């Protein structure tokens, strides 16, 4: 173990937290239970030897990532997170915090690691009721041995960050649940560790406060770049916060992936059933449902080419981009065809710039309003204005339905003009039907 | 040693448990005589000193000091009540007895708490200790109180010391139990928070477990003191001094007047001790913090 690395972030390739084949068995014969599990026994088969809370967990968390572990109660997620700061010692396997292996350090080194590398936010806040908000936030610094003036100043900064500036001298019992958890968050931030463990941190809060806290956490993470491991049983929360999500069931991690991967490609029936009632409109983003525009023409080409491509693809309008694929607008058939006939050389004058654009990360929920206000599909463009894809209204509606008829695969949505035919068609037919950007383009 | 059962007419052999305990006690007396002498000297001098402090000044000075303590702990009502109550004690000619009993209670309670609270903490943190301590406490609490007086008289003869020792044994149980309970009841998540931020176990005990368990520990302190008072009266049987002597004397002589006066003095002392110690429990930082929300 080398010294404190909290000031020098690990290189991007090295994981901040690495879990390698970790088992945790509670009971009379944990070692024997692990051997049987490794040999392929099921959790129920080793019941007499002990309760297998975590079975063969392996994952890496990159620095600055929000990694969510999701599962129902009893799935082992709380045990798993407690092995990441050594509150539980793994029965087998390695837990690496940067370059330190928690499974191999002694008590003193473990305490040093907890002080310098990893802090935690608890479900029921776990504040000291007899201390003021400021003293609570300063607690980790007190343990670290920071002098009083300095720790009060740092604690105050942490309180400012979570929006509790004026509450330093209050007692936790005088605060609402949401505010108490802000103190819990401030305490973890004051510790100034790279890794932040959050154990069902928002589960005890009202839905409204919860989403407020989620936004605040995302903001803080953006600003501070902490590595966050977040435990939750709430799929919507997992999908909203997580860069990646590990789904746990009966002690095993059944799937690790981005929210979109889990939603569109569930690893098994359990995950599929789990994601069935997720609010897809908040998880799926424009980029996950968008499709390739059927026809794009570069601004340099003439109306003749545009008209022919539209005819070949059987669409009535085409997207116009420049050489860097920056979106310039639409060209409509009723403008291009006469212009081609008249021998106009350039498209420039014919381009209709009035296209509604959205960012690829926009959740579907926020696409409905713009989609309702325009008759052509939404254009998905990146920060440089390059055209990435389009989202026709029909696609939007279809993406909202859980994938019963299409394996939940986001790609099965299509740009067909008629909703009836789309609902009836198999994915192959839909693709054959063509996804032309023509919805009422004649208007 | 083991003779056939006779008067019960059963075949259960007579087990001379009592005789064994008796020979054990006399063996202890012989073997540890110097130790017991030292203990006796220590308790005697402590008790004498405290009793001297309480009974030497004029009664109203001590009554005023106790009233001031009550005022500080709870408020002016208890302060005035305390002063009037102790004036009544003095008016019943029980002042010196009451002060002797108070001294006995204080010495016995302090010893019981000095032993009991650390034992309770140890039991809360160690399952084995808890498993050993619990039945012993059950035994100590259910054994008729004055039975303790017998071996202590054998060892320490009569006077305040056997009274104090018997009182400590009788009163220690709630001190251990409430402390263990209080520490075990501390929110596991808060203790976990202490560990998660890298605190040592000792520091968690000092900064988290004891402060959070304080209201429960103080309830135990209150119980210890109340049990000590009741035992101090019983130990009047061995001439421990104080109100107990008069209560026992009144019982032997069937003296209603003396019995009532000494008994009433015990009640006044009990109310004073109970109200003040329970008020101290409310002054624990955690109790205050919880109160602030109401």
TrEMBL record, chain B:
- Give the residue spans that cross the bilayer: 50-71, 78-95, 101-124, 145-173, 224-244, 256-273
Q: Which residues form the ABC transmembrane type-1 domain?
A: 98-281
Q: Where in the cell is it found?
A: Cell membrane; Membrane
From what superkingdom does this record's organism come? Bacteria
| Matching PROSITE patterns | ABC_TM1
Protein name according to UniProt: ABC transmembrane type-1 domain-containing protein
- Does the keyword field hold Membrane? yes
Q: Which UniProt keywords apply?
A: Cell membrane, Membrane, Transmembrane, Transmembrane helix, Transport
List, alphabetically, the InterPro entries matched. Answer: MetI-like, MetI-like_sf
UniProt similarity note: Belongs to the binding-protein-dependent transport system permease family.
What is the predominant subcellular site recorded for this chain? membrane
> What residue range is the signal peptide?
none
Q: How does it sit in the membrane?
A: Multi-pass membrane protein
In its UniProt entry, the species of origin is given as Isoptericola cucumis
